[in-house]
Specification:
The protein is mainly β. The protein is built from no helices and eleven strands. The strands form two sheets. Strands 2, 4, 5, 6, 9, 10 and 11 form a seven-stranded mixed β-sheet that branches. It is globular.
């Protein structure tokens, strides 16, 4: 089992920045690829970014490429999502999630491939 606790988020003006954190406990977190997803009101959950177990590979949704950066510090069992140049359309509840297969090299865009989820954190970007 992996337990994920998120922090960060909040209200920011368009063009601003926020950093989300996803801290893990339980099984060795460094074994797991981690993804960030978001869900806006009335919309389906969508993929945002993913990072492999070592931090050497990342992948981003087109909508956030160049603005968001995913990173991890395995010594601290924490994954981060740095969000810059935020837009009102980035407003959503953001979730971190750990892949169901420890040690996998895949970076899945599919929520069903992730077994462990954080509690979610609200990000609101005002125009």
């Amino acid at each position: 089992q992996v337990q994920l606790v998120q922090s960060g988020g909040g209200l920011v003006q368009a063009g601003g920045s926020l950093r989300l954190s996803c801290a893990a406990s339980g099984r060795p977190f460094s074994m797991y690829a981690v993804g960030w997803f978001r869900q806006a009101p009335g919309k389906e959950r969508e993929f945002v970014a993913a990072i492999n177990w070592s931090g050497g590979r990342t992948y981003y949704a087109d909508s956030v490429t160049g603005r968001f950066t995913i990173s991890r510090d395995n010594a601290k069992n924490t994954v981060y999502l740095q969000m810059n140049s935020l837009k009102p359309e980035d407003t959503a509840v953001y979730y971190c999630a750990a892949d169901r297969s420890p040690g996998t090299e895949r970076l899945s865009l599919v929520g069903a491939e992730y077994d462990y989820w954080g509690q979610g954190t609200q990000v609101t970007v005002s125009s």
